[in-house]
Write a structure and sequence with these properties.
Blueprint: H1 5-14, E1 22-23, H2 24-30, H3 37-45, E2 57-58, H4 71-80
Helix pairs in contact: 2-3
Length: 85
């Protein structure tokens, strides 16, 4: 069975350990679509599955990027997980 693009993204993001992050570009590259980083962001923005830690995906320039529950929430979670101090 072949996974959909969305399922492939979710599979990659589920493997990001606490305290670590990937960029939207890195996620896109890992699913074989290196130019689809905007699509990765759009898909993760619609994520409602708590098992997909989409807060662990950031922009390539090191900035936090968007988050469905707001950037302050994303920052708080990343601090709690030890990525941000």
């Amino acid at each position: 069975m072949t996974l959909t693009f969305k399922e492939q993204i979710y599979a990659v993001v589920r493997k990001i350990p606490k305290g670590k992050v990937l960029t939207y570009k890195e996620v896109a590259r890992k699913v074989g679509k290196p130019k689809a980083y905007r699509a990765v962001g759009n898909i993760l923005n619609k994520n409602r599955d708590p098992k997909v830690p989409c807060h662990r995906v950031i922009r390539s320039d090191g900035r936090i990027g968007g988050y469905r529950d707001g950037n302050n929430s994303k920052i708080k979670i990343l601090k709690k997980e030890g990525y941000l101090t």
